[in-house]
Amino acid sequence: MLKDSKASAKSFEQLQEQGYIRYEDLPLQTKNGKRRDVEFVSNLYEEGDQQVIQCNIRDITERKAAEELIRQRDQLLQGVFDSVSSEIVLLDADGVITHVSSSWERFALENEAAVERIGIGMNYLDVCPRGVAKDPSATRALEGILAVMEGKLPGFLLEYPCHSATEQRWFKMQVDPRPREVGGAVITHSDITESKLAGERIAHEAFHDALTGLPNRSLFVEHLHQAIAYAERHENYLFAVLFLDLDRFKTINDSLGHAVGDQFLVRIGRKLESVLRPEDAIARIGGDEFTILLNDIGSIRDATRVANRINREFIQPFSLAEQQVFTTASIGITLSKLGYSSTEEVLRDADTAMYRAKSRGGGRYEVFDPSMQASVMALLKLEADLRLAIEREEFCLHYQPIVSLENNRITGFEALVRWWHPERGLVFPDEFIPVAEETGLIVPIGKWVLREACRQVRTWQDAARDNMPLSVSVNLSGKEFSQTGLIAQVSNVLEETGLAARSLELEITESAVMENSKSASAMLGQLKGLGVKLQIDDFGTGYSSLSNLHNFPVDVLKIDRSFVNRMGPGDKNSEIVQTIVQLGHNLGMEVTAEGVETAEQLNRLRALGCEYAQGYHFSKPVDGELAERQIVH
Ligand code: C2E
Ligand code: CA
Ligand code: CA
């Protein structure tokens, strides 16, 4: 067996020294050439004075093969372990570590603070809590591992933060049981910092406005929800919601550009934050719309005080792009006293009150009361109906004569629009023109009015006796006046209808002219260039400066009826009328008095040298047929 004689001698020495020799891994070849592994054990003992060597040879081929298989499997397992990015530790049923992935080594090194170096053969249950003693997550982790190992939990998951001197990282620990026959557990650790941060970022973005960084509607609704719930349980707790919309933000955006508009909104956001207490909540919920939740206030006065404070703060201009930009805000307020149960109701009512503040000129607040809701509904209906009215051509014109005070003859008519509402009958412009202005529907309505008025007057001119020089006055709203296509539109209509330009007079209110005062003189100049006459309507109600007025190529000042029909002998209104007449004449303009209701007013106007008059004293606005009779007969 031991063919090598040198080796045999060495073995014998060893045998004598140790009393036995054991060889494993002795390859043997069988007769038919197959390889077998054998274990060879020889023992030396004495029998009497004889030394006896007993040799046992055992075929261990099968055992070796089984061990090799286990080794290979282990290697494979380790390979898999080491290739995944998670850190894996295998525990046996007693908590002793049987496998550790190589990434664990890296992990343990990088996170010394959190875990001691963990190696095969150590008991995890002993090692782990020592390494992370100060960390409360460690206790939970350990409890989780034990519960899984004892079969009380099917698995266990824990996300926990790990602080180092420079950063905070997040880890996820997952504990799964190993097969029951083996026992123990598989612990997987992974670094989830990146996905955690991404998650936080997404959560932040979902609840904040990207431009101003303020909370958005979703987050505000969340706060509001809590406030409502609290109010339901605590009778004395009161909160208010302010709905704020900037006045004229569109003008700022259009004239200074969107980049400046954006900056402006950011500054507004900061300013609003500065007037609030830490317990209040603010959000930007739309373009130029902000909401504020005032928590736990004493009374309505606390809310109105904040609203006033905001508009006071806005008096200070914002300097942006070397410009001084002003704004005011329309603010609607509603109070929890009304017993809200949903966030939508709160926001809807605050919005309604804001709308009321806006329609009263902006730069102010209104406190919601339930009657406002009805008027808002009516307004929405009106707007919807108005859209249909354009398609269905439900408008008509009434005409009110304008009389020359020199000869008492009708020189022309003012065209005044009316709406034949299918359910409500005749609707007057005071009700729908403001809505039409706000929604832009005034543009198509105005186009129709202009064409119809010109067409009508042209036919009257043809029918009238002695070809009397009849003119027609058409009202232009501020929005129509600032519209770029206006010049082309007027000249097209004149051409289509064949009306001479000098027969058309355009009435523009004093406030519309002053609001657009920069572009107004250019626009008026171009209209004048077409040959039409220009009037300033409702004069005395706006804020013209004399220097401006001087620059505008206007033919007629039309004194507002509020001065005319309240004129009494020697009173303030008579003086105002007298001043306007003189002013017009000094600027080379003619003057029309509107709203003349009595002969007395007429006489006074005549004495003041006013050129034209219009009013119920002569005729109310009448339909085309009646108006025609006034000139033909
Ligand atoms: P406005 O331009 O000041 O029109 C004169 C208004 O005074 C008319 O009211 C007319 O009926 C009324 N009125 C005339 N004489 C008297 C009087 O002696 N006493 C009193 N108390 N009132 C008198 P209306 O027709 O209801 O029009 C109201 C306003 O609607 C107009 O005021 C004008 O601003 C606007 N409007 C009317 N038609 C149009 C239009 O086609 N386009 C535009 N943009 N606005 C229009
Ligand atoms: Ca008018
Ligand atoms: Ca007027």
Description of the structure:
This protein is α/β, with parallel strands linked by helices. It is 46% helix and 25% strand. It has 23 helices and 25 strands. The strands form five sheets. It has an eight-stranded mixed barrel, surrounded by five helices. Helix 11 (343-359) links the parallel strand 14 (329-335) and strand 15 (364-367). Helix 8 packs across helix 9, helix 12 (371-392) crosses helix 13 and helix 14 (442-463) packs parallel to helix 16. The protein is rod-shaped. The protein starts with a helix and ends with a helix. The structure holds ligand C2E and calcium ion (2 copies). One calcium ion binds next to strand 21. One calcium ion (CA) binds at residues 414, 475, 507, 537.
Features:
633 residues; alpha/beta; 8-stranded mixed barrel; 5-stranded antiparallel sheet; 23 helices; 25 strands; rod-shaped; binds ligand C2E; binds calcium ion
